[in-house]
Prior knowledge:
Helices cover about 35% and strands about 15% of the residues. It is α/β, with parallel strands linked by helices. It has a single domain (about 10-275), classed as 3-Layer(aba) Sandwich (Rossmann fold). Helix 4 (about 110-120) links the parallel strand 5 and strand 6. The longest helix is centred in the first third of the chain and has 15 residues, at about 80-95.
Amino acid sequence: MADTPVTEAWDFGRGRAGYVWRSPSPRAKLLLAHGYGEYAERYIEHYHRLIPHLVALGFAVHAFDLEGHGRTDGARGVADMHKAVADHIAARAALTENGAPVFLFGHSLGGLVTAASVAKSPGGVAGVVLSAPAILVEIGGALKAVAGLVSAAAPGARLTPPIAPESLSRIPEEVEAYRSDPMICLLPPSARLGATAIAVSEDGWRRYDTWRAPVLVVHGAKDEATPAKGSGRFFGMIRAADKTLEIFPEGYHELLNDLDRDAARTLILSWLEARLPALTHAGAPLS
């Protein structure tokens, strides 16, 4: 089992709660973007201990909690996705200052933020992993109009039902851990988040045909939170020479917390490792 790395604070100048987990043998940096209602530190003990395994592989893992999530200030779940994308681009810029390779990982809503960030600002990306990305936001015209109006008048209003924890994983212990975690927002997404996510999603689809960054997309076919067909459409649209799509036929939304977690983590880590540079010389930490 990979050792648990020390959690350090990371400030990239945007007023968000930021974190870094350093590797003793640094080879690259990775910016991790969490999903709706959760927070970055959840990827230490959950998601099949993704952060410890990334650190063991040679990544200095960086992450931040979205507005209204985790330890970042704001009403719970009331986030502006335009600001989230701007935050992500700023975080990437901070990580590329010394020329180290930067990889990206985004799950669910974090997948939308990550994909939109790359589509809008494609430079300096060595590779991208998208896990059940919420890039396809399907909503009727009437509800879309209402969401925009309500977002302006009452940004904290909730227009959709909450996410059912049992729809995220087939492992009862993971479902209960999600349901009982005081750091997780169990409320539905706010009107502001919904309206801005729609706008960010639509802008992304106007840009994805210029995508060139190496990318791995993983999705569960039985995902009830984000439609897997969005990943298929994205994969068919992008022009990257290095692209891989893996659909897990029985997989739920949180693949790394689900029954396919061994296969999903192995795929993600092996894909990343194949694109890592050689080990840096001792005494040259990637900060």
